[in-house]
Amino acid sequence: MKYFPNERQLWIAESLRVFGFINRGVMRRKYGISAALAKADLRAFLKANPGRMLYNAKLKTYFASNGKRGHLAKHAEEIIHLWGELTDERRKLDKVS
Q1: What is the CATH number of the domain that holds 33?
Q2: CB 3.0 to 4.6 Å from 64: which of 10, 74, 76, 94, for a disulfide?
Q3: Residue 34 sits in which domain range?
Q4: Contact yes or no for 65/51 (Cβ under 8 A)
């Protein structure tokens, strides 16, 4: 089932509010869309809602912003910290395997 662009835009906003982040991979799994379409949806959201999310290139993920340019929402900062810890642990496990 294909979802309409408006539905995906609403879901991006909801994900940022509830979870504090969104990325192409999540959108692809949720909606069964291509990486290019997910990227276009995220760019359209950012254009329509400047300051609502910030991109972290290292994690390839958009995080909720508090509305001030360059400042993440508090819960997004916590998510990045935890994500970084998980990534470090994963790398350690990969080296052992």
Answers
A1: 1.10.10
A2: 76
A3: 5-96
A4: yes
